[in-house]
Specification:
single chain; mainly alpha; Receptor-associated Protein; 11 helices; elongated
Length: about 280
């Protein structure tokens, strides 16, 4: 009788395990392909052309290292798996952060280029020759982006298409103004030097206002990070002072549930604080 009961249970467990492994394998393949595709796209935006397979392998090795370190320090499988999972998805957010900083540096460098380009045009130079001399002395990323525009033109790409590619790579308000003014000047002519000087003055005023906004909201952003880090620091201190009491939090389902609720509330708080201090100019 017991054998008749155990056979369906074993069959069900085997089929369930096979289906679970298949789902996990398919999810792993989809995430790996998406990771490689995203890595190639993001790294090309930084003019870095690396093998996506090597990037994926390095990420997996880092995940394994973090998994081992987290398990040795916490003696908790769940915390170790959570830490390695965060490391697995961290490169995407890191690349997004680096792209935002690259866009910010590009916007900060753009007014100087426009002012120099306007001065060269007033001196009688052409747009392409002036850009060639200015870009050669400009810092990164401005030199990379406009240098690519000039190389595309030398290969036969029209100015409009090269500028459209520039705006696609650098989708900022300042880039849109510059691209639009250069396209209009290429099609109909006009006082391009005066237009560039006005755009440079507008971008400088906008950057100054953004700097003031960031300075005034810096306390709110700091409060968000302090609020997020305080429970972690407090948990580490209490684990050192009273490790037996804290074992309930680290090694029981009730403790894991409490940590999940805390993490959710932390994320909600950070989200609302960042929405409050993120003032669009």
């Amino acid at each position: 009788m017991m054998t008749v009961f155990l056979i369906p249970v074993v069959v069900f467990a085997t089929i369930s395990s096979w289906l679970l492994l298949r789902v996990i394998s398919q999810a792993y393949e989809r995430y790996r392909n998406a990771f490689k595709k995203e890595a190639v796209l993001r790294m090309s935006e930084f003019f870095l052309f690396l093998d996506p397979a090597q990037i994926w392998l390095a990420n997996l090795m880092l995940c394994g290292f973090i998994l081992l370190v987290a398990y040795l320090f916490s003696d908790s499988v769940w915390l170790a798996v959570l830490a390695s999972g965060l490391v697995l998805i961290m490169p995407q957010y890191t690349l997004a952060l680096l792209k935002r900083r690259r866009l910010q540096r590009f916007d900060e460098q753009l007014p100087d280029l426009l002012q120099a380009l306007a001065g060269a045009l007033r001196a009688g130079s052409g747009v392409q020759s002036a850009l060639r001399h200015i870009v050669a002395q400009s810092p990164i990323p401005l030199a990379q982006e406009f240098g690519l525009v000039l190389r595309e033109q030398r290969m036969g790409v029209s100015l409009e298409q090269a500028l459209a590619g520039l705006y696609q790579r650098m989708p900022t308000e300042g880039t849109g103004l510059v691209v639009s003014s250069l396209k209009i000047a290429a099609q109909s002519g006009g006082g391009l030097a005066e237009t560039l000087e006005r755009i440079a003055a507008t971008l400088r005023a906008r950057l100054h206002l953004l700097g003031r906004v960031r300075a005034l909201t810096s306390q709110g952003r700091m409060q968000a990070w302090v609020m997020a880090g305080l429970p972690l620091v407090l948990g580490a201190v209490l684990s050192q002072l009273d490790p037996e009491s804290m074992q309930v939090l680290w090694q029981t389902p009730l403790g894991w549930m409490v940590m999940g609720v805390i993490a959710g509330l932390e994320l909600v708080g950070i989200f609302f604080i960042r929405r409050i201090v993120n003032i669009q100019v």
